[in-house]
Amino acid sequence: MTKKEKLQKLKDSMQRDMALPLRKGATQLVFGEGDPETEIMFIGEGPGYWEDQKGSPFVGNAGAFLNQLLITAGLTREKVFITNVVHHRPPQNRDPEPSEIAAYQPYLNEMIDIIDPKIIVTLGRFSMGKFLPNAKITSVHGKKFDVNWKGKNLVAVPMYHPAAGLRSVDVKQQTLDDFKKLPGILEETRNKDNNKKEEVKQMTLV
């Protein structure tokens, strides 16, 4: 089964899951979209009004800014994968509660396992908390962190949520600067992976 097929199967499971806590007040599931073969995955917080209407993540004003940020990093939406920590819109766009994040977590975890990205960029504090639970976004944004994901090495890069950049000129500039670092972080991660593969190859030849 291809990654695309696995993601569709996962989406179908979520559509059928009547226990998901936010589905009652939402218009539809906002699963996630992009390239399943990508090296970079973006995880935001939850769908807003326009995402709930269209069934796609980051399609409102924050989404327009995210598109601009991706261009800054030499990326496009079609070449990355974008999702959230909860996949139905919280009422009145409120913050997702810990119990709600926990309910969607198995699905998000499986999404990460299927895509198997080299880098996860967290957008906002709720997704950052999944990988860096004790971090403060003001001091860690734009930095790379090596995290252990189910025994595998993964690079997490916490970023401000694009919506925060729309509310503050300073945060907007910091976020633009942070996204400019992504190509270098990806290159560094690729080189590290290649060196590890080369070491394993050398060891097997000995």
TrEMBL record:
Example GO molecular function: uracil DNA N-glycosylase activity
Top-rank EC class of the record's enzyme: hydrolase
Domain Uracil-DNA glycosylase-like: 31-186
Biological-process GO terms, alphabetical: DNA repair
CDD domains: UDG-F4_TTUDGA_SPO1dp_like
Pfam families per the UniProt record, alphabetical: UDG (PF03167)
UniProt catalytic activity: Hydrolyzes single-stranded DNA or mismatched double-stranded DNA and polynucleotides, releasing free uracil
Keywords: 4Fe-4S, DNA damage, DNA repair, Hydrolase, Iron, Iron-sulfur, Metal-binding
InterPro entries linked: UDG_Type-4/5, Ura-DNA_glyco_family4, Uracil-DNA_glycosylase-like, Uracil-DNA_glycosylase-like_sf
E.C. number: 3.2.2.27
Entry similarity comment: Belongs to the uracil-DNA glycosylase (UDG) superfamily. Type 4 (UDGa) family.
NCBIfam families, A to Z: UDG_fam4 (TIGR00758)
Protein known as: Type-4 uracil-DNA glycosylase
Upper classification of the organism: Bacteria, Candidatus Woeseibacteriota
